[in-house]
Design a protein that fits this description.
One of its GO terms (molecular function) is ceramide 1-phosphate transfer activity. By secondary structure, the protein is mainly alpha-helical. It is built from ten helices and no strands.
Length: 218
């Protein structure tokens, strides 16, 4: 009798297709977006938001040394927000607290950490947009463009130089697709899901800062 586990699949592929890193990320951010768009929405729960952001960490790890700076900062800041969620209920709560204590831009403040996490989410959004924009666009080109758009304006010359130099060590598009356990077709679908879901989340975070007269140029 044939062992279904020896067929290179059986029912496993369909299970994997519903639990890839990208699909889990897309699902989490779609839930955040639905919450924001709901009629009785008031604010995002910090714990729920932090959990969704934690899932994104794997993407930075797949990009290698060029995005090591982003991975280290992003992961640390998300963990700080996870800890903050034990004290503060919502995103607005942490900003209100730091505004009252004049600690909005203070290193280690939750408002500053949120700003950096938001930047990480936007970096992935821009990378995905570039990634699926053209079959001719390499991952290095997509990543370079995304970094230039989202992060470079806030980084020193030394950091920018190091990041762009590291872009040459990025995997190929196909290697990244394999790392993410996707196919050419599924990767575009899941990336589009994240792009569409992350935009309202990013815009909401920006609106919170603006509502407190906090500029976005940092």
């Amino acid at each position: 009798m044939d062992d279904p586990n020896d067929r290179g699949g059986g029912t496993t592929p369909s299970k994997e297709n519903t639990s890839t890193p990208l699909s889990l990320i897309a699902e989490a951010f779609e839930e955040l977006a639905r919450t924001i768009k709901s009629k009785d929405f008031q604010d995002l729960r910090l714990g729920t938001f932090s959990e969704a952001c934690s899932l994104v960490s794997v993407l930075f790890g797949c990009l290698g040394i060029a995005f090591k700076f982003a991975e280290m900062e992003y992961v640390a800041k998300v963990q700080d927000l996870v800890q903050a969620s034990k004290t503060f209920g919502t995103l607005r709560n942490i900003i209100d607290y730091d505004v009252e204590n004049d600690s909005v831009r203070k290193p280690g403040s939750s408002t500053r950490n949120l700003r950096r996490v938001r930047q990480g989410l936007d970096l992935i959004r821009a990378l995905f947009e570039q990634f699926i924009s053209s079959d001719e666009c390499s991952l290095r080109e997509a990543a370079s463009s995304a970094y230039a758009e989202v992060c470079a304006p806030f980084h020193t010359w030394a950091i920018r130089t190091a990041v762009f130099a590291g872009m040459y060590a990025l995997p190929s598009k196909q290697q990244l697709i394999l790392k993410l356990n996707e196919t050419d077709q599924s990767v575009e679908r899941e990336m589009r899901r994240y792009i569409d879901a992350s935009i309202p989340v990013i815009e909401y975070i920006d609106k919170l800062y603006i509502s407190k007269n906090i500029t976005l140029d940092w």
